[in-house]
Amino acid sequence: MKNRVVVTGLGVCAPNGVGLENFSKALNSGQSGIRFYNELKELNFSCQIAGKPNIENIDLNQYFSKVQLKDLNANGLLYGVIAGVDAWNDATLEKSTAETPDWDAGIIFGTGILGVDKFRESIYKLDKGDVRRLGSTSVIQTMASGISAYLGGILGCGNQVTTNSSACTTGTEAILMGFERIQEGKAKRMLVGSCSDSGPYVWGGFDAMRILPRNYNDNPEAASRPMSANAAGFVPGSGAGTLVLESLESALERGAKIYGEILGGAVNSGGQRAGGSMTAPNNTAVQRCIQEALSNAAISADAIDAINGHLTATSKDPVEIDNWQQALQRKGGEFPYINSFKSQIGHCLAAAGSIECVGTMLQLDQQVLFRNANCEDVHPDILKLVPTDKIPKKTLNFPVKIIAKASFGFGDVNACLIFSTYTE
């Protein structure tokens, strides 16, 4: 008998809200976190807008020691530690203060690239021959596993502490990996999630690819338009999202609040075949991933009440909708409700899946479906498949039990999770 896995803690550092309360209010109201950045204009970016968490008023002493804060210059790491520690606290778990770590608690925390600004700073010092001035934290701030290493030390976790990286599927994949570890009895609780750095050295490559919107620099909040006929490319974002996963037995034993349950999930790759490429999905693989997630969760396609899509506001949005329709074999009015948080936060890259999974859990906990912003003009190819009332323009209050969440990433990789309300 495999362990049931529930969610007992949430933490988030998103462009439209840092902390659960702020993030929840923003999603409910449709508040955008996308802003114009003069720095991008000065660097001649075509797209001069982005989604970036505002942590200026956050007391970092609540999260780091004075020694850790010295020379700390990795914003993705900051976002990840804030979200991770907040999730741990939200789950009412204690940091291990004894010499012995908590052998039952582990971390899988992903990232795409970490510490770009710190890496750039180090390169300049090296080029000047100032190797002795790099400081003692340059390695841990720039290695991909630096985020899980920081969190592992802060919380005292003694189970598996590692980092995954799989482009835009990173966060969703990390959650599935933690789920499977608890399900198999290898851990009692896992802190899972992902983070992404912010700034021009992360976003510049996408601007060079000409896949970012360039006509909304004067109207940034209207720029990210998932499922819209006027979608002009994804708005780059950053941040972190975190979930505390726990065996149901452990959660009940300590009387923890349960946000919901993970029923199952799946990951796969299209192998960059049959239309799939480094930047485009193999549609058959996407559909298989969704169907395998349903099978792993032991539910039928008819059980899905809502979908939180990947939906990045590009020309691929209608293709994604068609893949959902093909995978679920639910057409017209039978199609589930569907939304995308990217209209408010942009595409947070490696952090996208985890931030959006936090939002998905909030929907289950509050029994709502958050609105789609900037989607007044639904793409005609989508309307051929999905009635407009299944794409809510305002937050809906209605009984929602099961939500499917998927992420698709560069390299033709896919991940899908099935979340549910908790029932005994």
Automatic annotation (TrEMBL):
UniProt enzyme class: transferase
Single GO molecular function: acyltransferase activity
Record note on quaternary structure: Homodimer.
Keywords: Acyltransferase, Cytoplasm, Transferase
UniProt organism field: Croceitalea vernalis
Name used for this protein in its record: 3-oxoacyl-[acyl-carrier-protein] synthase 1
Annotated Gene3D superfamilies: 3.40.47.10
Catalytic activity, reaction form: (3Z)-decenoyl-[ACP] + malonyl-[ACP] + H(+) = 3-oxo-(5Z)-dodecenoyl-[ACP] + holo-[ACP] + CO2; a fatty acyl-[ACP] + malonyl-[ACP] + H(+) = a 3-oxoacyl-[ACP] + holo-[ACP] + CO2
Cross-referenced Pfam families: ketoacyl-synt (PF00109), Ketoacyl-synt_C (PF02801)
Localization of this protein: Cytoplasm
Top-level taxon in the UniProt lineage: Bacteria
Tagged with keyword Repeat: no
